[in-house]
């Protein structure tokens, strides 16, 4: 595996050289854990931590190194981990900034193309697709819509016609990740060693697509619930995978994914998990009370979200709204 396959090029090299830090090497962050990062340098995959200076200098949490970042790293001395000393300026940053959220969260850095995966089964929801499109377009990455599960489509012609209207600003592909030719349809987006990010609901087929594109079972997949096509949150971490033939792909958890970030610090209450659920509420301004089709309430009913946490979130959101009013 080389850094070039991960998208390293002259542009990155220039930024790296201009840092002028002695004794560091270039690397890309491919995984993030509570206590350390997983990074790839020109010749190894390593464990790394960040310098305290970097942690203290950040203006907001999304400035911290995250999956996809290119970084300058001081190699380990002795048994210790390598140390990330600087983050190179990002070409794109997929950042979640939900209403009332004071701490924007980095989902993925330096992703060139984002596949928004949506099932043509019970997952089909044009309003949610539009919100994902807004998220991607504000990130600096290109959006590509992947309408998955054509084999399960309830009304394919009408759905494709509706997608063509919603997706004016993005190419879209309709396919079956399970039965169709995923590589033939989507591998072109790796050209030039680009990095693909992949987002969408739990159960939409993100990991199935990731595995097909990588040509190996890198990620576990799991059947959705029959009644409503909802997934089971099989993927729990964001991880960047390198493709043998160049390029990389970042699989992400479906909604409710961001709990791993909540441990960073506790300055502000962090409701990223609830906010991620709220993306699926029918109404964008849903207050998660008695509104119809409230995904937050549904999660409580399904035993996936603590009722107390929903109540705390509603109280928090109300306080934020009042703060913004004055
Ligand atoms: N029938 C059919 N099933 C599919 C298709 N694509 C994926 N699936 C199935 O849908 C289920 C969920 O797929 P995953 O790839 O695990 O979904 P995911 O988006 O990664 O879900 P999370 O990791 O929970 O966010 C699996 O059982 C897949 O085999 C498809 O095109 N048709
Ligand atoms: Mg998955
Ligand atoms: Zn709601």
Helix and strand layout, with pairings?
Blueprint: H1 10-19, E1 25-32, E2 37-41, E3 45-50, H2 52-57, E4 70-74, E5 82-87, E6 93-96, E7 105-109, E8 113-119, H3 126-137, E9 142-148, H4 156-166, E10 172-174, H5 182-186, E11 195-200, H6 206-214, E12 239-242, E13 248-251, H7 272-278, H8 295-301, H9 307-325
Describe this structure in a few short sentences.
The protein is α/β, with parallel strands linked by helices and 326 residues long. It is built from nine helices and 13 strands. The protein is globular, with a radius of gyration of 20 Å.
Q: How would you sum up this structure, described in words?
A:
The chain has 326 residues and is an alpha/beta fold. Mean pLDDT is 85; it is low at 256-268. It has helices spanning 10-19, 52-57, 126-137, 156-166, 182-186, 206-214, 272-278, 295-301, 307-325, and strands at residues 25-32, 37-41, 45-50, 70-74, 82-87, 93-96, 105-109, 113-119, 142-148, 172-174, 195-200, 239-242, 248-251. The longest helix is centred in the C-terminal third of the chain and has 19 residues, at 307-325. It folds into 3 domains: 4-87, OB fold (Dihydrolipoamide Acetyltransferase, E2P) (Beta Barrel), CATH 2.40.50; 93-251, P-loop containing nucleotide triphosphate hydrolases (Rossmann fold, 3-Layer(aba) Sandwich), CATH 3.40.50.300; 265-325, Orthogonal Bundle (Ribonucleotide Reductase Protein R1, domain 1), CATH 1.10.40.50. Helix content is 26%, strand content 21%. The strands form 3 sheets. A 6-stranded mixed β-sheet has the order 10-9-8-11-13-12, with helices on both faces. Strands 1-2-3-5-4 form a 5-stranded mixed beta barrel. A two-stranded antiparallel sheet has the order 6-7. It contains 9 helices and 13 strands. Zinc ion binds next to helix 8. Zinc ion (ZN) binds next to helix 8.
């Amino acid at each position: 595996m080389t850094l070039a396959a991960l998208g390293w090029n002259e542009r990155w090299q220039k930024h790296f050289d201009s840092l002028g830090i002695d004794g560091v090497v270039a690397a890309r962050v491919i995984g993030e854990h509570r206590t350390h990062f997983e990074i790839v340098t020109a010749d190894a995959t390593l464990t790394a931590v960040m310098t305290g200076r970097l942690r203290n200098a950040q203006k907001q949490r999304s400035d911290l190194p995250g999956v996809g970042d290119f970084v300058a790293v001081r190699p380990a001395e002795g048994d210790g981990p390598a140390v990330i000393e600087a983050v190179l300026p990002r070409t794109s940053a997929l950042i979640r900034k939900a209403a009332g959220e004071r701490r924007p969260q980095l989902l993925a850095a330096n992703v060139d193309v984002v596949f928004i995966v949506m099932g043509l089964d019970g997952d089909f929801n044009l309003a949610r697709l539009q919100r994902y499109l807004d998220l991607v377009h504000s990130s600096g990455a290109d959006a590509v819509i992947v309408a998955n599960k054509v084999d399960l489509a309830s009304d394919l012609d009408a759905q494709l016609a509706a997608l063509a209207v919603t997706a004016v600003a993005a190419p879209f592909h309709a396919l079956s990740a399970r039965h169709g030719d995923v590589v033939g349809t989507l591998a072109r987006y790796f050209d030039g060693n680009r990095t693909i990010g992949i987002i969408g609901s739990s159960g939409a087929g993100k990991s199935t697509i990731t595995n097909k594109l990588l040509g190996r079972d890198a990620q576990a997949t799991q059947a959705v619930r029959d009644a409503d096509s909802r997934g089971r949150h099989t993927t729990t971490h964001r991880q960047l995978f390198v493709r043998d033939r160049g390029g990389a792909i970042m699989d992400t958890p479906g909604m409710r994914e961001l709990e791993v970030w909540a441990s960073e610090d506790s300055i502000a209450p962090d409701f990223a998990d609830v906010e991620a659920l709220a993306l699926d509420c029918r109404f964008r301004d849903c207050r998660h009370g008695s509104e119809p089709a409230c995904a937050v309430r549904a999660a409580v009913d399904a035993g996936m979200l603590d009722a107390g946490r929903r109540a705390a979130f509603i109280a928090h959101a109300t306080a934020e709204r009042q703060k913004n009013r004055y």
